[in-house]
Amino acid sequence: MVASSAMRGEAMAIVARIAYKLDRPYDMFVAVNMMAEEHFELNVEQRKLLITAYRIIFSAKRRALRIISVMEQQEDNSNHIEYIAFYREVLEDDMQATCMSTLDIVENHLLPFCRDAENATLYNKMIGDTCWFLAMLKKVEDKEPFVEKALVAYKTASKKAEILSPADPMRLSVDLTKTAFYHDIMNRPERAYALAKQALDKARPVLVLLNEESYKESTEYVRLMEENLKMWCTTMGKDPEDILSFKELQASSSSSTGYPCPVVPPSVLALAPDTFTSPGDWGHDVHEGLSASEIRHRKKAAQMKKGRMG
Fold it and tell me: Where does the 14-3-3 domain start and stop, copy by copy (predicted)?
């Protein structure tokens, strides 16, 4: 029965790969969920498919919510505002439904059949990220259960990740998100700072032991954590110079590894809301939506370009 489940799961993984190549993200999303429902341990490639599918779907939904919020703020016509507000609620309901189905998939179809440390780390982080997002969509009085569940999930993910190298990209992704959660949601900047600095101190000495792909991904997480720490330093009265800069890290590491400057991780789970103030492992996707300032900047740039061409 186990072999049969694994075979059916791999069949759905093949469908997911095909859907990805055909640029059919929703079909891919459905396929990876059907894969998960076969109740078997995902291998590395199947896990990457899961991450990619969820990243694409959540990024698109989050981007839509962000843009419609900007539209609602900038619209002058009261009739239009009413319709925009109505459709924003539709999008929010859709996002909440997707989040709840995500929790069902992870808690009931993935975690119970998981023995691999990386898988367990990822699944608990997915629970944390999803609950964080749900908390941001809820009214103030309804946030607390999701905040508490997210914190438990992040702590569990950290515990599961202890078996991994301190520089492992999966472990660093948890460190990055958990510390941002402590700072932004729990309002505990000192705790966030201490955990992030501890994670960096443990990761840096062993970064050079990673293969090239993991090195690129891990050093990107390191850079994002450094940015968070420097930002937090300004509000906590700490000296930003205490934090080894990413450029210094790159200079000290590249000579022995020959690896190029890291790029954005190719398969990073991005479930977190756009309203977070600290960049997490969703930091690059969060800027895909158009904020009010970005819209003004683009309009100004287009006007200047048009003036030059005229």
Answer: 8-248
With cut-offs at 50, 70 and 90, classify the pLDDT of residue 300.
Answer: low
Contacts 24+ apart (CB under 8 A), 195-203: 196/225, 196/228, 196/229, 197/229, 197/243, 199/166, 199/172, 199/175, 199/225, 200/225, 200/226, 200/229, 200/243, 200/244, 202/166, 202/167, 203/166, 203/167, 203/172, 203/175
Helices (H), the chain: 2-21, 25-36, 44-74, 78-105, 117-137, 140-161, 169-184, 189-203, 212-236, 246-257, 292-309
pLDDT for residue 243: 55
Q: Is 43 exposed, middle or buried (0-12, 13-18, 19+ CB in 10 A)?
A: middle
| pLDDT above 60: residue 279 | no
pLDDT band at 114 (very low <50, low <70, confident <90, very high): very high
Q: Answer for the pair 6, 38: CB distance below 8 angstroms, yes or no.
A: yes
d(CA 52, CA 17): 10
Closest Cα partner for 271 from 27, 33, 50? 50
